[in-house]
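Complex 98.
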Amino acid sequence: MKIYKFKTNKIQLALFIFVMSSFGFNVSQANELAASKKGDFARGATAWVNNCVRCHNVRDPKELRDDQWITTTFHMRIRAGLTGQQTRDIITFLQLSN
Ligand code: HEC
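Predicted structure with heme C bound:
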């Protein structure tokens, strides 16, 4: 069976960006969005202090390994009502502090 491969060339890419920008999608906005998706240590520290003490004592970042902080923070995200960005920031803070 022949598998159809979708190849994007530069013209198609330029066309795609042109079409997207005509709908108000700005490429520099997309870059900012991509940058803000990364976890931020300083924002994470603030979000951790403000949110993670509401229900129990603050948990020492050293308590858990990097991989355990991912699952635990996802669990706590639901309890604390955090946004995705806050969750990524807190995970970054916890993983860089343990
Ligand atoms: C709305 C209340 C609430 C908030 C806010 C909250 N937690 Fe929790 N946390 C709990 C409860 C309840 C438990 C007991 C375990 C469970 O959820 O069943 C818990 C347990 C834990 C545990 C023990 C391990 C585990 O998964 O059971 C850790 C570590 C933890 N929380 C970290 C955090 C961090 C980090 C934050 C901030 C992102 C946070 N918590 C915010 C309610 C909360």
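The radius of gyration is 20 Å.
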